[in-house]
Amino acid sequence: MSSVSVQEARLNEGDVAAIDRLREAYRALVSELARVIVGQKDTIEQLSICLFARRHALLMGVPGLAKTLLVSKLAETMSLNFSRIQFTPDLMPMDITGTDILQENEGGRREFQFVKGPVFANIVLADEINRAPPKTQAAMLEAMQEQRVTVLGKEFHLESPFMVLATQNPVEQEGTYPLPEAQLDRFMSLIELDYPNEEEEIQIARTTTGEELVNLDHLMTADQIIEHQRLVRRVPVPDHIYAYCAKLVRKTRPTGTTAPEWLKPLVAWGGGPRAVQNLILGAKARAALYGSYMVRIEDVKAVAPAVMTHRIITTFAAQAERVSARDIIVRLLDETPDA
């Protein structure tokens, strides 16, 4: 058995029992969401990993794949406040953060009062985030990174748990402001939603053209989610898992000595240190959700495509050959030995 890093304490009996409870809660979550969401099991898994890893996610998919419904129902089952922001080219920072408004108090005196914006929620769906101008995106980035907003020089902290799920439309790019790489790097995962299969599409038609959707049961509270997030951080990681993650990410850098020759003409820029950090965090969360008391190689491989795809910039040669960043990650996973 591989050794565990000295920085990682082994789980005590209380943590073992807590992981067992989290595994059962995750199974109940998947079952509950299946009452209104058809298919999308991989998407639900990746969203859950990001939530319990205390990270944000970028959803990519054409319209009509139930992204908004999925996120809102996830918040409903977690007993969390949900907010949806439709990003548009004229959206200003104060439209999402809130601002001071002059109001008259009970004594008839006028004073400024801060009115919170839609970012003050536990789960925020930033719909088509790349349609907002850079200044608004910067305000959203502060909320994601610092869990606070700054309005007129005053800082306002956002309540925990806090998670941003941003969507981008991969089809229509006219009039958009592409997210800079620095902001993309703040998202733990890029979750790509694909079209449903024929059987699922028929089921979607049946469930959405009849009676109204049912209300889902509340499975957790905010305090329980925060405790599970802390638990995820305590999941032990063997030394060879750290080495595997570092080796995998370093292979994506075309100027590095460990990059394979076939990759160099296809990649302009590889993953940075955040890729390694998020691989470990994502693997920890997945291990806990599946009831494992230690991170395994299969946990890393399961989260690697979502964690690394948006951190790799492909060259024109790759685009001409129709080789995507995900294709590159899958090949690297196949070629990188487990130990």
Give a quick precis of the structure:
This protein has 339 residues and is α/β, with parallel strands linked by helices.
Detailed description of the structure:
This protein is of the alpha/beta class and 339 residues long. It has one domain: P-loop containing nucleotide triphosphate hydrolases (Rossmann fold, 3-Layer(aba) Sandwich). The protein is built from 13 helices and 11 strands. The chain has helices spanning 13-33, 41-52, 67-77, 93-97, 134-146, 181-184, 198-208, 222-233, 239-250, 273-289, 297-308, 316-320, 325-335, and strands spanning 57-60, 82-86, 98-104, 110-116, 123-127, 148-151, 154-157, 163-168, 189-192, 267-269, 313-314. The strands form 4 sheets. A 5-stranded parallel sheet has the order 2-5-8-1-9. A two-stranded antiparallel sheet has the order 3-4. Helix 2 crosses helix 10 and helix 8 (222-233) crosses helix 10. The longest helix is centred in the first third of the chain and has 21 residues, at 13-33. The chain starts with 12 loop residues before the first helix and ends with a helix.
Strand order of the largest sheet: 2-5-8-1-9
Number of helices: 13
How would you classify the helix and strand content by structural class? alpha/beta
Name of the CATH class: Alpha Beta
> How many extended strands?
11
User: What percent strand?
Assistant: 15-25%
Radius of gyration: 21 Å
> How many structural domains?
1
Mean pLDDT: 85
- The helix/strand series, from N terminus to C terminus, equals HHEHEHEEEHEEEHEHHHEHHEHH
Q: What does the largest sheet look like?
A: 5 strands, parallel
Assign the CATH architecture. 3-Layer(aba) Sandwich
Helix content: 40-55%
Shape: globular
Distance between the termini: 12 Å
Could you tell me the CATH topology label: Rossmann fold
CATH superfamily: P-loop containing nucleotide triphosphate hydrolases
Sequence stretches where pLDDT stays below 50 over 5 or more residues: 4-8
